[in-house]
Design brief:
7 helices, about 250 residues, about 30% strand, 9-stranded mixed beta sheet, homotetramer
Chain lengths: ~250, ~250, ~250, ~250
């Protein structure tokens, strides 16, 4: 069974009434409950727990980590970011949500600024599926409408996605690459745009389906573990050359 | 005219006779001379210069940076890595050579360990062109033979190349993705495998052609400079919603 | 110098007043004149010429072919499609424009239906650059606005573009992958969405810049010509096995 | 349960003793038995059956089709190729094996010549996994050794694979992109190089594992079925413009 750790910054919900009214127990609780309903083993972790709730043990037991952060990206310790990075390279899946685009871990894995345009005006977003055969598109309609969304607009400064699953249309005239797949090491990464703290996006059933699909897609397999470093030849070759400098 | 800065760790050549005999004035001097012969404006920079020779002014004037390092990756200061990283995102091209796969800047841009298998046995490498229409393959034969090379073998822990131009066959039984193109921000990156310090690879004319092609390909253009951050709507929309939380 | 052949179905302009008022001498004439102004050697060819104007000689002399068709795709002879296909695999660039998505040659090169959604309502299209470092984005602003356009909407049934340069936003709620790069054989292919016959899209200067950029990008280089078929071993191996069945 | 149809030209086995000694009941029988052992529902179809065994009913009931052909590609009727093509675009998976690279259906789906270099000398092939997190690499070691193989060498004239899973090293000095994933319409396509008729490749357990992995990966999902053609606007727009020309 796939084990998911749902990470949340969990500040807005405790500090702001409008957010608390949408996610009274935190975004992480809603997502974890949904994923449990879809058959995953779940736990949660938040910024203000020791080690942000992401101890070595927790990460070792995690198949897929989901990440929601916004206001306190810089408070995430470099040591934990390093630990998460290593686990992704080892094979742990990572689902980065909405404002998590600016998280240390996402920028580190992608190597770019991950900047974008944004606007909060509760405007219409229409999330179009452009790769209908991708596992993350299972069970979806041609598009998903979100009646009130924060706008994220291009240019999204990320490397070209290995697979682009969703594109978003916004009422105000912008568009966005909203569902982007990447591979880093043995780990699979999915960035999913929707999900602002003041709009009830994660309460929407189709969005929950997408998150469950993404977790299933990002779960590690048992492909070969690569060996690195100095290697003996497999074929017989002359190894008497003495020019080696290490 | 494209301005190239050729960066070299420049330690082996000063410390080891066998390397000095191949590159008496340093790898950087050979590469810079070749690129000048191909019509580029060149300068060099090395690890032991102040700021590793990569001051803000130098980088601002650099269109394409080539990078050769091996033994002292950790001595490159984080501040300079940060500066180079920012310049790549702004559009500076970067050509990473051979053992530069483990450089801080390459790992930071790619987000992976950049690990690989290796062996120094002066064995045959055959560099096959798999994407003959790519600008970096201009003027090349179907394959280039390097009679004495260090082996680098898969798994090469990098993200899937956006374009894979070269594949290497090695006598000892391994193969390698030897010419890999990436985009990060507005910058183009090319990783080129051949080039060990104890073999005269960069004296070989076809290799020089490849380096010149790579520089031409990686040179920045004048595409749009993206604007990021809060954006007014382009289309008329209702902006009176008051739920905004920053 | 790059030689461009501008192909046009050239029926609507002769049969329909509203089209004739926008392109009195045909879409091909406007595009060819623009490309000549950008420094290319140009000629034109149209459906009702012998061999559709695409004789073996013409194609041999063509570096880049641009293709606009709409109503008479099925009238293009299979022999000419075969000839164009072979020239693309040999290295000729191909720029497919707007309703050319349904042309025989485009579907043949891509292997899919190339279907899409469409609507003619003279609505706003906003063409966003998502890959600003690509040569086809040279000299462009962040987005190009087309005040009156035919809508093309996703799902666009094409293989995932190797590089996605443009995305279009439409007033009516759809979006589209509007600038798509592909490689087939040694040939480069660019699909560019804008350009309906009843709207003066190709009279717009920024669109002309994009077409010129695309032609420059698609022009053939002189990378290696691949050899195929039975090959002698390069390394010494035992070739006495007699199980061969051809 | 995933239903697989294993298609085979089935001529060499009936006409040539050396092939009959390796595959007495045909390559298709061996592959179908293996896939059944891996839990798939299987049937077989061969060239000399009516409609090559690929009636509309058979294809409708097929989730994944595997294709082995060599000597009689041109005897496959265009009508059946068209039918298979349409089913792939609808979502049927397709696994193309070895000399199937020259089949009508593969060339049609890819749009290129699919040419390559080849040699039959029972030489060593070493199949390296370059994308260990891909589902087709499940349960594999870092490389698979095939002691007697036909050589296929680059340039392999195919579009750049969307995912490159395997690379082959050959004793005689060549290499090859041996495991290539593509998407066409809603269908997933995997090309797998190993498998010559005179060597017992498909009797090898690791190869069987790869085929089973590929079938599982290529099986259709239930993503959205795209609608195409004329579309009403989703957002309210002015639709009174009368310039429409169909």
């Amino acid at each position: 069974m796939t084990t998911v750790t749902v990470w949340n910054e969990y500040r807005h919900e405790r500090e702001t009434d409008v957010v608390a009214s949408v996610y009274p127990d935190g975004i992480h609780t809603v997502i974890a409950d949904e994923l449990a309903d879809h058959g995953f083993e779940t736990r949660t972790a938040t910024l203000d727990e020791p080690e942000h709730g992401l101890s070595e043990t927790v990460l070792e037991e995690t198949d897929v980590l989901t990440w929601w952060g916004h206001d306190a990206h810089e408070e995430v310790s470099d040591a934990v970011v390093e630990r998460v990075h290593e686990r992704v390279l080892e094979g742990m899946g990572l689902i980065v949500l909405h404002s998590g685009h600016y998280s240390k871990i996402f920028r580190r894995l992608l190597g770019t600024s991950c900047s974008l345009k944004w606007r909060e005006a509760a405007e219409t977003e229409r999330l179009w599926v452009v790769e209908p055969s991708h596992p993350i598109a299972e069970g979806l309609p041609e598009y998903v409408e979100l009646s009130e969304a924060e706008m994220y607009g291009e240019r999204f400064d990320v490397p070209p996605p290995e697979t682009l699953v969703f594109l978003s249309w916004f009422e105000g005239g912008e568009l966005f690459r909203s569902g982007c797949c990447y591979t880093r090491g043995r780990g699979r990464i999915f960035y999913f745009r929707p999900g602002h703290e003041t709009y009830p996006i994660y309460h929407q059933e189709t969005v929950q389906q997408i998150l469950a699909n993404a977790v299933a897609w990002a779960a590690p397999g048992d492909g070969p573990v690569s060996t690195f470093g100095n290697s003996d030849p497999i074929e017989p070759i002359d190894t008497t050359d003495d020019r080696t400098v290490h």
